[in-house]
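Form 7-S
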Amino acid sequence: MTDEPRTARPSDTVRQIGVIAAVVFMIVAAMIGVGLFGGTNVRELQGGALDADATLLAPARPAFSIWSAIYLLTIGYAIWQALPSQRFRERHRAAGWPVALTAVLNGLWLLTAQWLTLPLTVVAIALLLVALGYTLRVLQTMPGVRITGVVLLDASVGLHLGWVALATVANVTAWLTVIAPAEWADAGELIAVIVLVVVGVIGVAIAWITNGRLAPGLAMGWGLFWIGVQRSTGEPASMTVAIAAWVVAFVVVAVPLVLTVMRARTAPD
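Output:
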């Protein structure tokens, strides 16, 4: 399938409006999530279970600044795909609604954290992770050829997927910390290291499946780096977990870089 313009369809305009509406919903939910419009900041929700000092796998607060990049890129995509010149692009037809779904699920996770229960936040973020994986798969089967699309679509979805993959682990850990027997605390470091190894395997798998896409690994590496910072300088402290997080961060960033270099060297002239 090509990305060349074709005859416009009524459904194209509906899709463009749907993407914009979904992204607006996501941004409003994000504003509620930082305490605007009467909302409570995410780190204070669920009894503080989602804050940086809640579990051994929670990243330091600066890690969450990645949302600014994800939101700005997603807003940029919503504006770009709404241009008349983009209305008939086959890539938007394939990826527009999936992107809209990820935006809606992103907002729903924030609203779930605000007003519902911690287990339901796990369900919400798992659904978001699946939707992002599907969206990236759609993009993988229809590669972009324009730098604007690569930045606003591929990079935004890739960063979103990488961060949410790590956030899912943190969210599940927060839930398990609340419900787990007290005896589990003695094995907390070991469990955290095992989970980090699993995160590394997931990061490597994403890199392999996507032929070395950098954005997911960069987002995961960013979050893992800040998990290491929080464990080495904050509470709960664990130098063992910090070192493990930094090692895994290196792996999930290095593997897609290596795959990209290998692909470039084997590409025909």
